[in-house]
Amino acid sequence: xxxxxxxxxxxxxxxxxxxxxxxxxxxxxxxxxxxxxxxxxxxxxxxxxxxxxxxxxxxxxxxxxxxxxxxxxxxxxxxxxxxxxxxxxxxxxxxxxxxxxxxxxxxxxxxxxxxxxxxxxxxxxxxxxxxxxxxxxxxxxxxxxxxxxxxxxxxxxxxxxxxxxxxxxxxxxxxxxxxxxxxxxxxxxxxxxxxxxxxxxxxxxxxxxxxxxxxxxxxxxxxxxxxxxxxxxxxxxxxxxxxxxxxxxxxxxxxxxxxxxxxxxxxxxxxxxx
Length: 274
Fold this sequence. Notes:
The chain has 274 residues and is mainly alpha-helical.
């Protein structure tokens, strides 16, 4: 079975532990088969179609957590045991969704350069590692993934952009996922004050890798804009409006965003500077 077909099969797995393990195994097999990168031309250009059963099962996920609107997910203080577990559960859910988002990019979008598929497979594997680290830490607290309600904002935007790779690159990695670059240091500060140094260390790993993931989104967004003769800076707000993406609010982690490839002009746009 070809890489992109396998990515689709892993995306449809419902059990979180099995999905994370299968994602890591898929990348290991890819690296063994393509140690210097690359992808078979037939695999790159294969236009995959979902069966009705697959479409209804997309993405594969467990029965829990219950998915509710973002406004229905209560805010809890990280300075109580339950509140800290709920906070880490929310991040764990983001990482589980991020596995799905990266696998979806691998299987869904045909005829991209081979490096595109290698990049998003790397992202999927790193997100699987993040999810596993957070879930294991949750379990030491007497909780587990699925114990708290969660919202589905990341996958909702994935669905909205399923037919538009340019919008996907603009609005998922470099908009919704880039929020993590801004939020993580603030969360780490709270967890440090709460005494959860293990969680802080896990978030160090996640923040380091997420800079790379956002950079991948930036790289392919700009690649597509250049290929199509589009002005990336002018196009971005149009896509935000068209797909009803959230307009991000400061404070921004400008150092992390610059490391992830945001230009001075793009940061000025986020800050509302003319």
